[in-house]
Design brief:
single chain; alpha/beta; Protocatechuate 4,5-dioxygenase, Chain B
Length: about 290
């Protein structure tokens, strides 16, 4: 049996069980949301930086799912692709086995994996691609803690024309399965500043404000308006998402499952977190958003 072992435990989040649990509880406390939610959440967008920066927003989404849809059987987690893993555009499906984190192992939904691979030309079995990618891994302990009986289906999605198609195909498979499934898209937003090679507005507070209030918002607006087919193209033009394929797939899946709009729960950037927690500022920032459908 294929076991995907944690690669960023102790770096992006706590490396031991107790430390991991403590950090999850801290994220949940920091990320409380008291506003209105969709009646039955079927999808969400979460960030994937280190938990100290983005964990509160990620848990905000999972906690919202827990509130409205507590009996989730499987989480399909569409992840970003931070390194090239193959020559084709097809999404890499981790189709069988388990994922291991400091909280133990969680089983992959092999049945759902096989169904989407059979149904969609946009997906292929490729466990090896997941070996060094963190964007899905950092979500798994949240799922284990809040939904201890749930399985996962990890899928890395290259940004391209097939991204939205994958989401639509996934929705058809979910409907046919009769299972309670929630799709999660993992992405950070604008990586702004000299270190990231993207600083069209220069440096300083006004530039970072533009990255959040204008550049991030362009991606968020497309997501909440369910415009899945525009997401990858706009992200490529504006450099405002590292997981645009994952976002497009998630939005398309949510739309195919009957959702007509997304709800933005929170939006912030890393510089705001640094100022609040450490009293320090930086010339760089990374945007994070929590969205549910």
């Amino acid at each position: 049996m294929t076991i995907r072992r944690a690669i960023v435990a102790g770096q992006f989040y706590g490396g031991g069980r107790e430390r991991c649990l403590q950090e999850i509880e801290a994220c949940l406390a920091e990320g409380k949301y008291d506003g209105p939610l969709p009646r039955d959440i079927v999808a969400g967008i979460v960030p994937h930086a280190g938990w100290v920066f983005s964990g509160a927003l990620a848990t905000m989404v999972f906690a919202a799912v827990k509130t409205t849809n507590p009996d989730v059987e499987t989480f399909v987690v569409f992840g970003a692709v931070h390194s090239w893993y193959g020559a084709g555009e097809a999404a890499a499906v981790f189709d069988a086995g388990t994922w291991q984190t400091p909280l133990g192992e969680v089983e992959v939904d092999a049945e759902l994996a096989g169904a989407v691979i059979a149904a969609s030309g946009a997906a292929e079995a490729n466990c090896k691609a997941h070996g060094r990618e963190h964007s899905i891994e950092v979500q798994v302990p949240f799922i284990q803690h809040l939904f201890p009986d749930a399985r996962i289906l990890p899928i890395m999605v290259m940004p391209g024309e097939l991204s939205a198609q994958l989401g639509e195909d996934m929705a058809k498979v979910i409907k046919a399965s009769g299972k309670k499934v929630v799709c999660i898209g993992s992405t950070d937003l604008t990586h702004y500043g000299p270190r990231y090679g993207f600083d069209p507005k220069g440096v300083g507070e006004k530039a970072i404000a533009w990255a959040k209030d204008v550049n991030d918002k362009a991606l968020i607006s497309l997501a909440t308006a369910m415009e899945a087919e525009k997401i990858v193209e706009v992200a490529e033009e504006r450099m405002n998402a590292c997981g645009s394929g994952a976002v497009a797939a998630t939005v398309a899946a949510a739309r195919a499952m009957g959702r007509t709009k997304g709800v933005l729960l929170a939006h912030r950037h890393s510089n705001e977190v640094m100022l609040a927690k450490y009293g320090e500022a930086s010339e760089e920032s990374v945007g994070y958003a929590a969205i549910v459908f």
